[in-house]
Amino acid sequence: MKKVLIIAYYWPPAGGPGVQRWLKFTKYLPDFGVKPILYVPKNPTYPITDESLNREVPKHIKVIKRSILEPHQITSVLSKNETKTMSAGIIAGQEKQSPMQKLMLYVRGNYFIPDARVLWVKPSIKYLEKYLTDNSIETIITTGPPHSLHLIGQGLKKQFTNLKWIADFRDPWVNIDYHSQLKFKESTQQKHIELEKSILQDADQIVVTSFETKREFSSKTAKPIEVITNGFDEVEAFDIDLSEAFSFVHVGSLLSERNPTELWKAFADLVEGDEHFKQFFELHFVGKVSQVVLNSIEENGLKDYVYLDGYLPHLEAVKVQHQAQVLLLIEANRTEKKGIIPGKIFEYLMAKRPILAIGPEQWDVQKIISETQAGNYFDYDSHNQLKKQIQIYFQDFLQGKLNVNSQHIAQYSRKSLTQKLSKLL
């Protein structure tokens, strides 16, 4: 069986979408003749943890853990609350930042390049040089963000010229949206451009999760690029009844820039103008919701219809998706977001509930929703169209026929995607 070393930062008990991709790949790789070995940090700073995911780690997986030094571990001594907020990634949009947060962002952005995990690079290269030799490993995979992990792959590639190195980009690098919040100096921005270019040129194979990222990277390298999206686990049907309410459910973080005001206005119009709608309507959020978004919802008179469920263990969140009448998928209205395909869309597909997606024009999600016939997409200015679609959903709900006949979703199962990955190995 072929051995492959996977270098990752997010691993159980980390929660959130970053951990799911490689947790699931490692589950199915042995089915295709590949033995995965994980290299992960021993003492990481995870903004969200989900202990239930520890039970999903395959028993056949060897996991190597090595200590990591992160700025968060240092700054937490000075300001624990500020560090927790920054670690959670609340740097996008219009959240008000304290002077300490602004200082921490400046230091994080300009003195830890490409990211706060860069101090793990040199110790990891030193340790893994010997490990690769002792264990006859000929293929490695690095997955980012954090993109500093690609520097580990690059360093090992320089030491072992025959080593096959696959660089997996779960998100873009230079064009990632939060870079604009990190207060980069011009020289820092240039350094990111140079580092990204060197990784794209030195890796043997590039893997990306979206069609837009492939288009972007294709203009920067001649190396082969494969799109392998995130996906869903095929699970047995839950013995769960649909919500008796006309429930719209959003799963995942909803930061301030993901604030579709026209959607809230459409809901408000229907609540005000339709007593039946008012009686049945509910709006559920599973995960962290920005106060900016909550304020916008309250300004539209919807406070009494909102349910904040907070972060739920993964399996519980999946059950909530299966109970929903309509699933909300919301992305920020920014050009650089059109190549971001949230991992939850694939679990939404598995739930087989109608998806109402709102995001930037030419969003990659449009392609998936269109080819699977799993729901409807709208841009941020589609007030009237949103209102009409919600009314259609509601009439179907009242008649007990609010369903979706999705097509071609098997291609997004984790096992199918792992088979695709195995062919690159």
UniProtKB/TrEMBL annotation:
Keywords linked to the UniProt accession: Transferase
GO molecular function: transferase activity
The protein's name in its UniProt record: Glycosyl transferase family 1
